[in-house]
Design goal:
The complex is a heterodimer of chains A (about 220) and B (about 270). Chain A is built from ten helices and no strands. Chain A is an all-alpha fold and about 220 residues long. The chains are: A mainly alpha (about 220), B alpha+beta (about 270).
Chain lengths: ~220, ~270
């Protein structure tokens, strides 16, 4: 196992399930104030959360602060994690992402002009969708959920898909995405909102479509 | 939009009463794109509005594969030290008490574990955590984790010092159980909703490899179970839930159907 596609979930459905099971168990333990389980959870997930923060934060120091804030929040809110519904790593990554975005928005609001076009120290998000999409040979190791998402994103206009990635992975605000893609802020807003509804429909369609109707 | 809306009796309603604006707000918030007052409103709704939160979490799950496009990078050691410092001295002091108790007991190890035994008559110092549910009609995923209560976390080293045993049982996504370590060192399990029927109660069993089932008790909703001293959880043992008459099995072994089982594995 190696390469960027394996990450926390493991390459296949089995690896994915097993890895997520372990994280769930650790989160239950953390909710019970088990410091050893929390240390284990950190060991297993902190590289991913650091990666998430580095994509969004303008400096490495800030990314490190965000990761620290995120784990304190995980410690404090592990008891509210809804096991039947949420995915552990997605939940934790969202905590990190929200902390990073909150900071980024606050700095922009204060008139910070340090927001770089490329996030520091990280694999650049890239303007071209092709750099981020998995290559055909990688597709074989993707889970069914990943294949479905990439297929649905593939149905979007390339610039709309890029806007989605910039918002989610780079934490860019609409105005920043507009600057990157050369379109007005309101246009980006429309692209993103419309694309999200199309993605939602596509993800649900793929889940329900094969069931067909009652003939 | 397609014509599918006209025939959406074929498609299960997945909106949970949320309006189009709600769906859009949840999607944008999960994506990270919402800004200013909208973002603050959505953050508040996630904390207080369950259908809205569930929609946001659905987006987290849908978008999760994008995390594979984010390069991992281990944070420097000071980040972990900062986390530990921030989560407070109260927890560290609890660790100290646990460490002092453990140090007083002689070591005796079951195979594959680092069980710390207790003086005669006292509870085995295991901490059990469970997400429990029932199999069969209640499909879903449930985990049981048994964690040793050895709290000797080496300072500065974010590695667990205690083995964690996990079993996956097929079951409903029940509310998670919490472990409690009380001052005497007794470990209890509190297990969430199990959905037992009117004439049956769920009973939790530990079945060592090649051994006979040992009852871990009757987990009702919110009940705390004390792990009996003769329960020695170890990797390879089986956890099982059977449906028993009210009050539990009269024979000391499962008499009713076993609705969920899982094998303990060491994390």
């Amino acid at each position: 196992m190696g390469g960027r596609l394996t990450s926390m979930h493991g390459a296949g459905v089995e690896g994915q399930g097993r890895g997520q099971d372990e994280l769930r168990a650790l989160l239950v333990a953390v909710a019970a104030r088990d410091r050893a389980a929390f240390a284990s959870l950190y060991e297993r997930t902190s590289a991913k959360l650091m990666g998430v923060a580095l994509r969004i934060c303008p400096t490495r120091a800030e990314a490190e602060e965000v990761v620290q804030v995120a784990y304190v929040k995980v410690w404090r809110s592990a008891g509210s994690f809804e096991h039947g519904r949420a995915s552990p790593i997605a939940w934790m990554a969202a905590i990190a992402r929200n902390a990073a975005i909150d900071r980024r928005r606050a700095e922009t609001a204060r008139g910070g002009d340090h927001v770089p076009l490329e996030p520091s120290g990280a694999v650049p998000g890239g303007v071209e969708v092709a750099h981020d999409a998995p290559s055909p040979e990688d597709a074989a190791v993707l889970s069914s959920e990943a294949r479905r998402l990439h297929a649905c994103i593939g149905e979007l206009d390339a610039r709309h898909a890029a806007a989605i990635r910039h918002a989610h992975l780079d934490g860019l605000a609409y105005a920043e995405i507009g600057a990157r893609l050369g379109a007005p802020e309101n246009t980006i807003k429309t692209w993103v909102r419309r694309s999200l509804m199309r993605l939602r429909e596509c993800m649900n369609r793929d889940r329900n479509g094969t069931e067909g109707g009652d003939a | 939009m397609t014509d599918d809306r006209a025939s959406d009796d074929r498609v299960p309603d997945d909106r949970a009463g949320l309006t189009d604006d709600d769906l859009a707000a949840a999607a944008e918030y999960a994506l990270g794109a919402s800004e200013g007052a909208e973002r603050a409103r959505a953050a508040h709704r996630v904390a207080h509005d369950a259908p809205f939160r569930h929609e946001v979490e659905a987006w987290h799950a849908w978008l999760e594969p994008l995390l594979d496009e984010v390069a991992d990078e281990a944070p420097p050691a000071h980040v972990w030290r900062g986390v530990e410092a921030e989560i407070g001295r109260a927890d560290a002091q609890a660790s100290e008490r646990g460490r002092a108790r453990s140090a007083e007991r002689p070591g005796r190890r079951a195979s594959g574990t680092r069980a710390v035994p207790t003086p005669a008559g006292a509870m085995a110092p295991w901490r059990a955590l469970a997400l429990m549910g029932l199999g069969g009609a209640f499909a879903g995923l449930v985990l049981v984790a048994l964690v040793e209560s050895d709290l000797l976390v080496a300072p500065g080293a974010p590695t667990p010092s205690a083995p964690t045993l996990v079993a996956t049982l097929t079951a409903d996504g029940a509310s998670p159980a919490l472990a409690r370590l009380d001052e005497s060192g007794a470990i209890t399990v509190r297990i969430g909703t199990l959905g037992e029927g009117p004439d049956t109660v769920p009973q939790l069993w530990l079945i060592p490899e090649g051994g006979a089932p040992v009852s871990l008790g009757l987990p009702g909703e919110g009940d705390a179970l004390a792990l009996p001293a003769d329960a020695t959880p170890a990797a390879g043992a089986t956890l099982a839930v059977s449906l028993e008459p009210p009050g539990g099995s009269p024979t000391g072994a499962p008499t009713g159907p076993v609705v969920a089982t899982g094998t303990l594995i060491e994390l």
